[in-house]
User: Fold these one by one.
Assistant:
Number 1:
Amino acid sequence: MKLSRRDLLRLAAGSAAGLVFTPVPWKILDDSAIWTQNWPGIPEPSAGETTFKTSACTLCGAGCGLRARCVSRIPVRLTGDEAHPLGRGYVCAAGLAAHHLAHHPLRVRGPLKRSTRRGVVESSTVSLDEAIAVVNRKSGPESTVGILDRRPGRSLSALYRRWLGSLQHGVYLTSPPTEHGTLKALQGLIEGHPDLGYDFEHSRMIVSFGTPLFDGWGSPGRMTRLVGTDRAMTPVIVQIEPRYSRTAMLASSWIPIVPGTELILALSLLDVLRQEHLAKREDLENAIKLLSPDGLAANMLAVQQYSPGRASRITGIPGDSIVSLARSMAVNRPAVVLGGGDAGAGPMNKATQKALAALNIAFGSVGTPGGIALKRSDVTAVASSSAAADTCLTDLPDRSLDLLILDASEDGCVIPWPIVERKLRDDQAMVVSFSPFLSGLARHADIIIPSPAPLESLEEIPMPFDASRSGLALSTPLMTPPEGTTDAALVIQQLSLGTGGGFNGPSASGMIRSRMEELFRLRRGTIETPKQVSPLKDLPSVDEVFTLLSAGGVWLDDPVGERVSYIADRSRTVNVFAGGVAASFEEETRSPNEIALLPFGVKALSGTGQVSPILSKVFQESRVRPLEPTALVNPSTCDALGLHAGDAVRITTDRGSAIAALHTDATIIPGAVYVPVGPDPEAINQANPSAVPLLTLCVDPSGTWGTTTATLEKA
Ligand code: SF4
């Protein structure tokens, strides 16, 4: 049977529904139900009144709106809220089971102190005062203290930054830019470094360098609608990726590429623009002069080294395809170019992201409708406080931190523990986690002071990074947190008493109320609710603002219409031509069994957070998604290496070795091996404690992770 693109669109649009109607997961759920009958954590709602509540998911930054069916005020079923401006009915597999997490077996129900003795981790319960006293002893004036905040832009984030700003050595840390790398690179090139987003709804073409646009990336509800059959204008979507992924299936066309050669292709596209005068001269010059600190003339010459003919030999893409892609982008403007892997793949390297940012500049897409949108920066106290500036975790020098605090929030993407560990000064450095679960990065913490679980407290949802306007939504609590959980804001206030800051103030929910007051005074933007769009200036009181946002409304700030000017200062740190990149690819000599190792994963399921045990059972038994430890390769790669499907194979990199089960997949480019990452095997009770996580093999000496060279052999 031949599948058309429309069929695939239907398939994607119906995936959530499919999960509901196909008997396979339900058979497994049936098994799960039997399995869980003896599980002490299972909620047992008493027969009682059925009610419906609105909230929003906080398991990643997308903030999808939820509708909860509650019995006796306990949520028993979550669905996507069709009317919520965030998600518009979409909810992923992790979000569907978000209400299970409050009952998770790995739930931490009070402060814990952990230590390792003879290789065995021991946990003991401590009082909150004792836990805070231990942390206070580590936050003296000479100590470097960092907080890793995976969902910046909340009132709690502002408190973190204020406290860190009051310390002699405080660092506010954010996640590596796995999903938003292109915007981050572009932001560094624009005067004033404004917030940026994508105006996909008005784009005519989207060129994605491996971004999983239709597999959980950004705001998945928005992306699903983008290619929905009800849209009058669907952009041309080109997916450039070494495997025929779900996004490649839904794109207008798929261009397979040799892994790790995306930078060469981007530079070659710039060369075609130059040769064929396909871009405005001013835009092209702006783009090319930012590529290195050597200036326009030198960079123009350097770009000429990336002719389509030469790029073809390196990337595996025919030269005429490179030329026709550049021509197509010139015709289909506004066009957007973006890159970056999925939640498990890690951030794309900075040189490639800068070249993709330059392509957007060359095509005149920045600040143009249908291109890259400029967003108003947050003007509430969240942003304006005298606070520590943000630093990306991977940019922090190694061996810097004496005390690292891990906020409980998640962005849905993976951070391998070795990336965090290398930032700790020595064995005496302390890690504190506010996670409600003993999983992911929290497993490595010395002290755990648990926060409420998802859907147990009022939380802010800043607009997702890909949105074209700034804004704010709320996630209202559906459950009451158990005794023993602690508001992180109150912990920071107590710590600040010990460090001389003295930030006495309200709880996290009190801070959110204060932010509502600031919004009300701002009198800017609109609040979109399922029923109406209300200009904020027309609302009579702050209570009305709070009521509308609590009922599933979203505050959207006014759009910005400024001209942009480009700067070169930040860009000096990244020279895309450094080391003769094309030559280094051509000269690369690999031994016969060396192969490109690529991790991949799904947002919110591969991340460092928690998944419902029932969901993880569905995953393990349905094979809806491949699980660790699996290695996926092209059959021709198997033949070349003398391997067969079903073999146990050893994957080896500079970081060590791991064993995986070999599966063949004809849609993967030869010479590559894909390994799925997550869900966290220890968190789903499937761990072999001695096994090396496959992701650990992908960590490279530069302090980041992603595609790496490996050997593959029969175990
Ligand atoms: S995990 Fe993320 S994508 Fe999934 S429902 Fe929650 S907010 Fe939406």
Note: Residues 239 and 254 are 5 Å apart (CA to CA).
Number 2:
Amino acid sequence: MKTNREAAIHNAVRTVLERVPALRADPRTQSLRSAAAQLAKKGVPGARLIARATDPVLDITRSEVLRDTFNAEKRTHAAAPASQTPKAARPTALVSGGSMTGMLTAALLAKSGQNVVIVEPRPQHIRDVRFSLRQGMIDTVALVDPTLAKELAEHAARSQFAKLVDVENGTARKSPYDRPDRPDPENAPDTGQELVDSGQFGVLIARELESLIEKYVRKTFPDQIQFVEGKLHPAKQPDGNVIWQVEKPAASKDAPPVYEDLLKGIKPSLVVVAEGAHSSTRDALGIATAPTTQPQFWTGGVIHKRDDKVRHAGLSSTRFLIDEKPTTDAKGSPTTLQSGLGLSDGHKGLWTTVQMPPGYGPDTKWSQEQINDYYFQRAALVWQTSEEKLRAAGASGPFATPGSQPTPFVLQGKAAKEAARVLPDGTVVALMGDAVQSSTSLGAAGMNIAISEVMPVLTLMESLQSGVSPKKAAASYQEQIFEHGGAWSADGVQWFYPRMSETKEQKLINAELRAIADWRKRGGASPLERLEKILAKVHIAAPPIGLEPAR
Ligand SMILES: Cc1cc2nc3c(=O)[nH]c(=O)nc-3n(C[C@H](O)[C@H](O)[C@H](O)COP(=O)(O)OP(=O)(O)OC[C@H]3O[C@@H](n4cnc5c(N)ncnc54)[C@H](O)[C@@H]3O)c2cc1C
């Protein structure tokens, strides 16, 4: 039997959850408190009581209310005639980009009571990149769904050690990784910096990660999440609003693309753009981007063997290569930093990326044979083994397609000026992941950061449902996303400059974040140009003139 106070809190929590259905997907007590505070301002009865309740009381009450709601819904749906399916009554959110990030966002929005249309042009997951997973990312997935987090954790190869190979000094420093913890939603990071600071969890092949998430999404939300193949096409209207269309591949090479209406006139409850670094929706909306680092040229591929130095199959390892060479380029840079990164997946392959040599650029015409020669030579340094052994194992490219080969690509940090846009009709368009900020693969955090941004998306939905104005909700979301992106930029920027002490590295990071924030506020020179100006003035780097970008 409940006391009067317990019954009043129960009613208050039920009211808040009814008004803000996204809270059903959010076990964070703070989220319940924030929504209640917002509703209290609007005079919703009982909402103020929530502020005075303790966390354990709120946790228990929330579980009770969800259980009651679930049972009631089961009864209602069983009795409802087929024509009154709840689907028609639910709001619809639109997610563009069906990588791990977009799919997890769709899952959260579906859990919060929405229908979700997710648009993705790739028919299959083919990225053969090995992703290093952070503990904080696994804990975030546990917030979305503990069973899914457990499944991802079981598929990941646990990290045994990381090794830094320092060619110039002839040293190879090995550091063991802490044992990863079990996925724990209680430990999910609140900020991007907390995520980046969290330990290594393990390594998982990108396409396996995406396939596992897709399987979960399709199985859990067959009725709520609709996958549409194609590219999102925002058809801008004269009044500034947008009709959301999907661009289907043209029937033949010379035929124009076909655009189809996606939402059949429905105004979306939210549009999430998780389209990666080359987001066309971001560009179509006129959201500017600018470089935060110099471009670097790398070659990536998978060598088909496992790291012999790990204790047993199923354990992964990470290897960084640092190679500093004297250079005589026209600018007289004191050094040229060349790096490499290896991630073994414990079973099938050594994901190996090597920076291309000085002088390699977008116009360089190397044959595949030349690329492979250089690739295996550098990979042997990364893995501290013989080139012959690696060649004998064979290598393929970053995408699992027939005949793929190690492939050069350009790596450049990039930042967008906005992470959220409010259209005249009040629709919030929220950008996330690489569409807002990208850094370097050596930072090994981009996917982790992108996934951790699903929680700010959920908070955004809660704010909108609890009556915060779209402008205010979007501004608060943008702040969180910028913080996440900044944490990744900070983690990666050191790889674009010659080596420096930890104190100087911190100064470099501060300068980079300042340059990005300044550009977002004032426009004008890009974050990279701003950073180089700061560096030339404050002499963060070794003499003679501050840092020169690694080329
Ligand atoms: C070589 C390399 C190695 C890396 N290694 C790591 C690592 O070890 N750990 C780590 O954390 N990160 C790593 N990263 C970074 C990581 O890959 C990215 O940060 C992450 O994939 C970003 O996720 P996202 O969802 O923002 O974008 P993406 O993963 O790029 O996904 C975007 C999706 O949107 C789709 N799309 C694009 N345009 C449209 C459109 N108009 N309409 C609809 N859909 C669209 C694309 O097809 C794609 O599926 C690496 C990156 C590279 C290049």
Note: Residues 80-85 have pLDDT under 50 and may be disordered.
Number 3:
Amino acid sequence: MSSTAQSLFSTRSAGFKPSAIREILKVTETPEIISFAGGLPAPELFPVEALAAAAADVLAEDGPAALQYGPSEGYRPLREWIARHVAATTGLSVRPEEILITAGSQQGLDLVAKILLDPGDIVLTENPAYLGALQAFRAYEADVVGLSADSEGMDPAELRHFLLNCPRRPKLLYLVPNFQNPTGTSTSLRRRAELAEVAAEFSLPILEDDPYGSLRYAGAAVPALASRPGAADCLYLGTVSKILAPGLRVAWIAARNRAFYDRLLVAKQSCDLHTSSLTQRIVERYVAAPGRLGAHIASLCSVYRARRDTMLAALARTLPAGSRWTQPDGGLFLWARLPGGWDTAALLPRAIAAQVAFVPGAPFWVGTDERATLRLNFSNSTPEQIVTGVARLGQALSAR
Ligand SMILES: Cc1ncc(COP(=O)(O)O)c(C=O)c1O
């Protein structure tokens, strides 16, 4: 990089960090490597034909409108469907006027950070937390603080203690209550109630990020935090990335607080004017067929459930004694902790040499130097690949 370019960069952009996962994914792109690293859905399950037919219909029937600029809020019929879908799946009663369509939830995270965060503002997250959210908050120079989470989610007593003792008032509480990335664990109903209560007591807005809620393989759905009485300031993010296809880049923010909505809308305008008119209409056409999305999600769940079970059984046969790992009821990931002095970042090159990849846990942790954890994705490999991949991981582990 020339020194001229360096001298032109904003102070803010000097702190931008490349995503640790994207760097690993570059290495794992070769077909010989079985990758548990990315968060990719299974491509063979994308409803390609149905989406091709939806795209053909959209272009044949609404061609010029689908190719024209559109409203920044999003395509009205899709916002109407999203409002119904969110109410039916999460219990959050929301009107179409409260839905802002975004180019992926990742854009939602960026927009929320953009309107709320000044340099040095505190954002509270579960520890460990989703890397893309950490990247978005840090891009606005926020101080991210990770609070302990266990198999039931973030600890409300620790949250309360932090809020009582923090000299600066935190700006935002970021939570992934369903099948969290990276751990796969969910926040229990009791904890959701307690966390919402503490946040309301301290007037702390919640950002609830829910890309995985519909991918449930066991247990009953738990209502969204945003649906709780008193959680009107909660911003709720949903996406079609994991239930349909991430390449569509169609997602939404539900914001019942009008001031938040209006500010997000202006932030979106300066970012990309609006989400693609074409892909919004393709998604709307796809979901408009009664029962189609539900049947598709049911088939995803049955395939992913089997993959999760295969990985759990393979880990039980393979990981060293004293290892622990989560048993997620849904989503795409599980999270393991190796015993003793294991450093999973040091293990990764050996795993890649054995032709298997995972994500070392360290970058997901906020403010702690945790080296013995790793994230494993089970959605993007067949059961046969999972068995072979975990056996290769076993070889890498025994090559220490
Ligand atoms: C917790 C979480 N939030 C947001 C995203 C981004 O999703 P999208 O494809 O909708 O941008 C992901 C993607 O893996 C995620 O795991």
Note: The longest strand covers residues 143-150.
